[in-house]
Amino acid sequence: RDPAALSDAERGDLARTLGRLMALGAPALTLILYVISSAPAFAPWQDARYLVSLAIALPVMGASLWDRLPRAGGSARRIARASAIGATVALLLCGIVGTAATFRLAPTARAQTAQQHHLIATLTGAGETRVYSEFWTCMRMIFQSDERVVCSILHEDFTLAPNRYRPYDAMVAASPDRTYVFPTDSPWATNFPQYAQQQGWRYTTRVVEGGFVIYAVLR
Question: pTM score, two decimals?
Answer without folding.
Answer: 0.70
